[in-house]
Specification:
The chain has 309 residues and is of the alpha+beta class. Helices cover 28% and strands 24% of the residues.
Length: 309
């Protein structure tokens, strides 16, 4: 019997298999399980990838026309229970998953926005995840603090806005935000350009130019997310591509294209005049200036944006 060759794309890597043309879909699924060590999965084929019907395991492979095709294997994972709603934070407008990705035909995959938790460490999580660091917030805060103390000329009171020892003490607290100073330092520590795209203006701020590689994050006024590439939207975050050559300007333009879509959905907060409410005492104010004043007076640090429809 003739053999047919099928290419497999899986989170565990790419490979090829050969199988008898007279085999059934059950035989193919069993062979894929053996080759990839993935016990449960869905299959997609073509481009853009479309789901392959595997509801009839006894179907002959000859009826599926899979010769010289590429199958994308996406592991099936149980849906986790919904977490309890978090306390109000500064949160951009919610968006659906299909609004956060762009099909990229020339690279046979998708550029997408990975949305970070609203826990005051979004910048550290966005950067750390792009650098493949586990639980990055505490690590990056500590590294930044050490860097500031060992570079007193570069990071002095005039640059930091406060005494370095005070600044270091605050930045190591888990509820203190990171920004441009921290991005510059992390660029030096990890020898990578960090390109930050502002959703409201589509401006690209580059921290650490003249590096060989870059990561891309998205700034929406009070929140950071990161840009990633995936061959399939069903792939887990762990196999994302999040680092590119700084000579690859196409990925930066594609990221700006995605941010333009987000801009059209108002996925940003104007920090000068947005109406905010304290999640602890119910106080209502306007803009970051008022929020800072309320925090200084009360110590409250949980704020939500009040939207007027």
């Amino acid at each position: 019997m003739p053999l047919i060759t099928i290419a497999l794309r899986a989170p565990t890597g790419n490979t090829r298999i050969q199988i008898d043309d007279s085999s059934t879909l059950t035989d193919l699924l069993s062979l894929i399980q053996t080759k990839t060590s993935i016990p449960s999965f869905t299959l997609k084929s073509g481009f853009p990838p479309t789901p392959l019907d595997i509801s009839s395991p006894s179907s002959p492979l000859s009826s599926l026309n899979l010769k010289n095709q590429t199958l994308i294997i996406s592991p099936s994972t149980p849906t986790p229970p919904s977490p309890s709603p978090p306390p109000p934070k500064f949160t951009p407008k919610p968006i659906e998953q299909d609004e956060t990705s762009l099909l990229w035909p020339s690279r046979a995959g998708y550029l997408l926005l990975r949305v970070m938790p609203d826990d005051n460490s979004c910048m550290f999580t966005a950067v750390g995840g792009a650098l493949s660091l586990p639980n990055p917030s505490k690590l990056l805060r500590s590294q930044i603090a050490e860097y500031i103390l060992t570079h007193p000329t570069e990071y002095n009171k005039a640059i930091l806005g406060s005494d370095p020892s005070v600044y270091v003490s605050r930045i190591t607290e888990p509820d203190v935000w990171g920004g441009a100073i921290e991005l510059s330092i992390l660029s030096d520590i990890y020898d990578v350009e960090i390109s930050s795209i502002d959703v409201k203006s589509l401006r690209v701020d580059k921290f650490g130019e003249n590096k060989q590689n870059r990561i891309i994050i998205v700034y929406s006024g009070i929140h950071y997310d990161r840009i990633a590439f995936a061959m399939d939207l069903g792939y887990p975050v762990e196999v994302d591509v999040t680092k590119w050559s700084t000579e690859d300007d196409e990925v930066l333009e594609k990221a700006r294209e995605l941010c333009k879509r987000l801009q059209g959905m108002h996925y940003y907060t104007d920090t000068t005049d947005f109406v905010i409410k304290c999640g602890i005492c119910g106080w209502i104010g306007q803009g970051m200036k008022d929020a800072g004043k309320h925090e200084k007076e009360t110590g409250h640090r949980e704020f939500g944006e009040m939207r007027i429809e």
